[in-house]
Amino acid sequence: MNAITIRNLSKNFGKKRALDNVSLDIAKGEMVALIGASGSGKSTLLRHICGLETGQTGSSTIEIFGASLQNNGRLSGGARDLRRNIGVIFQQFNLVSRLSVLSNVLIGNLGRIPVWRGTLGLFSAEEKRLAREALAKVGIPEVAWQRASTLSGGQQQRAAIARTLVQRSNILLADEPIASLDPSSARRVMEVLAGVNRENGITCVVSLHQVEYARRYCPRTIALKDGRVVFDGPSSRLTHRTLIELYGSNSEELILPEAVPDFVPDYPEPATAKNPDMAPAFA
Amino acid sequence: MTQTTHIGETDKPRPEIGRDWTRDAWTAVTWIGLALLLIWSWAPAEMFRWTYLFTDAGNMAQYAAGFSHPNFGEGRYYLQEMLVTIQIALWGTFLAAVLAVPFGILSASNMAPWYIVQPVRRLMDLFRSIHELVYAVLFVVAVGLGPFAGVMALFIHTTGILAKLFSEAVEAIDPRPVEAIRATGATRLQEVIFGVVPQVLPLWMSYALYRFESNVRAATVLGVIGAGGIGQVLFESIRGFYYPEAAAMLIIMLVTVSLIDVISQQLRKLFL
């Protein structure tokens, strides 16, 4: 069964076309990278999948495990129930900065526990234990009682991941989770995401700016340009030459030479010759 | 899975999207509008009389001289009445702050749809635009002369003010943590409690404390129409030309308001 099914999704922001007739299928348990230059529609697509935005009216649909999340630009009635199965990690972490890290992680429970208990903030001892466990898993157990605003960027992002771990969602969407992090924090965060995907079978969609991370951690890559899907296939086929063909001079911002050097040898072999089945598309 | 949908031509010049001039136009209209309003109000507000402030300042000095020898003979009584005034302000502000939370959130345009925001805002306008004195007269009729009428008057008026200030704080929040909470499957109320309230709480506290200070002054004025407290005694003294006694009360009020200011400064630091 597909974890995420998108059909004919378009979105305009004023005069700008942010998404243009996107259709995608993502199977359960996949780890997918979403790449593209700034403004190519990666964030917008992820925000639609978690139901924070609605598409243009028309024939657009988004289904989560076969249940309708939005249809023709309207959220369906069960959207709140579906959201609890979709964990979201944001580029800017989106923690409540004046609450403690532990409270921020406990917020991940809100969709799971009875509404009255969540509203009053009465979390059980078991839920608090699991929240601490999640913080230990992402490697920052010592900051539980600090205010979220006192953490470094890398720590905040890991706290945000702990929040989604507590949520126990089946799908994890990460919107440029490493874009504002230093390389070593970035690698830790990607490793946690890959671990969650591998060990718990959680479907992950990660939007990334650098294609090196996509090739290292994600078997499949979807590339966007101007709101359209321009590549959808194994990440290994996404060589630098392919990127240059896709994005022209914009491809420079997608390639980070020193980040993951073991992939550099791919370049400059002719991608089309190596992968004949991709060739017609480029012709 | 392996399928390539479309390849765009590389490096095609991208069309520029035209600038939206309406925003700039509206900004200009707003500033010009403000200037016109000020000019329009000059004569009706008799602003041309400003020269009298300098030519006839002597009259003010003469009147003020009457207050130059304060008489603290009844100091203990004045303090008691001052305390009553503070107690009136305390209850009026507390009830207003409690009610201003739901009204403030419901009149924030990023929290509720326009068909709720607009009616709630108009109701708050009504609360705010009518002076405490008018409400006090109204409540005196219902609950009789005394401090309780003052509490109710302050309560209604302050609710209108705090709801407006609270809603402006809510409209200025960072929406991203709220979205993160929505993404966990939380309800709207939970979004407000965990995402909005922690962000605005220091500002709300600050506003409520400021209104408490203002309400201590306002409660004094309410004494005029018999709502109790030091105001009542003060106006009786002034009406009877007992300026030394009035001066003593004014000094007590000044010291009290300063004290409250110092205390609320400390409280504000605590909540930041």
Description:
- The complex is a heterodimer of chains A (283) and B (272).
- By secondary structure, chain A is an alpha/beta fold.
- Chain A has a domain of 74 residues.
- A six-stranded mixed β-sheet of chain A has the order 7-8-9-3-10-11, with helices on both faces. In chain A, strands 2-1-4-5-6 form a five-stranded antiparallel β-sheet, covered by helices on one side.
- In chain A, a hairpin with a 2-residue loop joins strand 1 and strand 2.
- The longest helix of chain A has 18 residues.
- Chain A is globular and about 55 Å long.
- Chain A starts with a strand and ends with a helix.
- By secondary structure, chain B is an all-alpha fold.
- Chain B folds into two domains: 34 residues; 201 residues, Orthogonal Bundle (MetI-like fold).
- Chain B is 75% helix and 0% strand.
- In chain B, helix 7 packs across helix 9, helix 8 crosses helix 9 and helix 9 runs antiparallel to helix 11.
- The chains are: A alpha/beta (283), B mainly alpha (272).
- The interface between A and B is large, with 58 and 34 residues.
CATH superfamily of the largest domain in chain B: MetI-like
Arrangement of strands in the largest sheet of chain A? 7-8-9-3-10-11
Instruction: Tell me the Rg of chain B in angstroms.
Output: 26 Å
Query: Can you tell me the residue ranges of chain A where pLDDT is under 50 for at least 5 consecutive residues?
Result: 258-283
Helix and strand layout, with pairings?
The complex is a heterodimer of chains A (283) and B (272).
Chain A: E1 2-13, E2 16-27, E3 31-35, H1 42-49, E4 61-64, E5 67-71, E6 74-75, H2 79-83, E7 86-89, H3 101-106, H4 115-120, H5 125-137, H6 153-167, E8 171-175, H7 183-200, E9 203-208, H8 211-217, E10 220-225, E11 228-234, H9 240-247, H10 271-274, H11 279-282
Helix pairs in contact in A: 5-6, 6-7
Chain B: H1 21-42, H2 52-55, H3 57-65, H4 75-106, H5 114-129, H6 132-143, H7 147-171, H8 175-183, H9 188-222, H10 230-239, H11 243-271
Helix pairs in contact in B: 4-7, 4-9, 4-11, 5-7, 6-7, 7-9, 8-9, 9-10, 9-11, 10-11
